[in-house]
Write a structure and sequence with these properties.
Length: 252
């Protein structure tokens, strides 16, 4: 019996440092050249880092792909000095790594990391939500609804992810637990590249939107315990969808 084909452990692209043309994935357009540029008050290195960060977390640049400094410098019309600074910023965020004899590469996906992030989020975020639900105000609800509207109207994965982050921050902020909120922000930052990959390659986005609306209704109805339990299900479903997307693309 012939052996099954070997699993592919990384994705490569011939022009990893150039943004792909706009397309669609699961009803959401992938990031393209018509997305808004970074803020004008950024330094050159920060601007380059922002563009590359967006390409990485929206899966325009895949996991474990080479990022050649000369190509990045050519793309932005700069010397390699700000490119090196930009890559250092991304390395501090665990988005790229300096590999011996392999140069700079985007960080490979790690299924164990997905599971660990899920475990930590399941510990911290439902507790934040339960605390926030007890003091949730109409103003808090309005902020969360605006974020839901932005999710529904998102035209690319980058806009979708930004709106999704705003929604969760709107839900948790009233808990007034700044240290926990900082930890959750960092965890969600580590989680973003997996989430972007999953949203690009699956149709999980509409289900996630329904879950967001249901969560907000429970919070505004004062059903803190039910909201906490549903958030647990929401986080677990998202992580399961990510692992399924990795399986479907042969990523160990």
């Amino acid at each position: 019996m012939p052996k099954p084909p070997a699993r592919r452990t990384r994705q490569t692209a011939p022009h990893a440092t150039r943004r792909a043309k706009s397309g669609t994935a699961g009803g959401i357009a992938t990031a393209g050249t018509d997305t808004p540029p970074p803020a004008a008050n950024m330094t050159t290195a920060e601007r380059i880092a922002a563009e590359l960060r967006r390409d990485i977390v929206t899966a325009e640049i895949g996991p474990d792909e080479a990022i050649r400094q000369s190509h990045v410098a050519e793309r932005f019309g700069v010397s390699q000095a700000p490119v090196r600074e930009a890559l250092s910023l991304l390395a501090s965020e665990h988005l790229v790594v300096y590999a011996t004899n392999r140069g700079v590469r985007t960080t490979a996906f790690d299924r164990a990391e997905v599971r660990e992030i899920m475990d930590l989020r399941l510990t911290l975020e439902p507790d934040l939500l339960a605390r926030a639900a007890k003091v949730f105000t109409p103003e808090d609800a309005a902020a969360a609804r605006r974020a839901i509207d932005e999710i529904a109207q998102a035209v690319d994965i980058h806009a979708l992810m930004r709106a999704n982050d705003r929604f969760h921050r709107a839900l948790y902020r009233p808990a007034a637990r700044p240290l926990t909120l900082d930890i959750v922000r960092d965890l969600r930052g580590r989680h973003d590249r997996y989430l972007g990959f999953m949203w690009k390659h699956s149709g999980h986005g509409p289900a996630s939107l329904r879950e967001h609306r249901s969560l907000l209704k429970l919070v505004t109805d004062g059903a803190a315990a039910k909201a906490r339990d549903q958030l647990r299900d929401h986080i677990a479903a998202s992580s399961k969808a990510i692992l399924t997307a990795l399986d479907e693309h042969g990523i160990d």
